[in-house]
Amino acid sequence: MRLHLLVAVPVMLACLLLQGLVVAVCLRRYARFCHHWQGREPFWVDVAILSVIMLVTLCGNFAQMAIWAGLFMLLGEFTDLLKALYHSAVNFSTLGYGDIVMSERWRLLGPIEAAHGILMFGVSTAVMTAAVLDIVKNSAARLKQEEPT
């Protein structure tokens, strides 16, 4: 177990840094964009903002799957990148098909990646939830301003 953690921790740290970068970029761009529009954004802007945030966070998660796949290839578990990516995606998303299994020596990396992946999807969900709640709050404020007094 110690060997697995020694191998997995640097990969998890790299993925955490990547996820932190993605979250920071999303939130900063979102705040800057909202400041520019200052409550007068049309409906299509809300749709575009949410779509971009979903796409960027999903790409961040895909990049993390690729990092894990690279580790699996580096360890000699896979020679084909597509198989390594597939296996990583199944682990990361906690889908757990089990149709491709790593050797007994490195098999414990699968659950470690799954635990990491579910946390990263949680962070992505939190970013989306924050953006949705902010859009709802801003929409409610706009409607309140439009009401006749």
UniProtKB/TrEMBL annotation:
Organism expressing this protein natively: Cupriavidus yeoncheonensis
Regions that span the bilayer: 48-72, 114-136
Protein's UniProt name: Potassium channel domain-containing protein
This protein's record includes keyword Nucleotide-binding: no
Domain Potassium channel, chain residue ranges per copy: 67-132
Top-rank taxon, per record: Bacteria
Pfam family, one: Ion_trans_2
Keywords: Membrane, Transmembrane, Transmembrane helix
InterPro entries (UniProt xref): K_chnl_dom
UniProt entry tagged with the keyword tRNA-binding: no
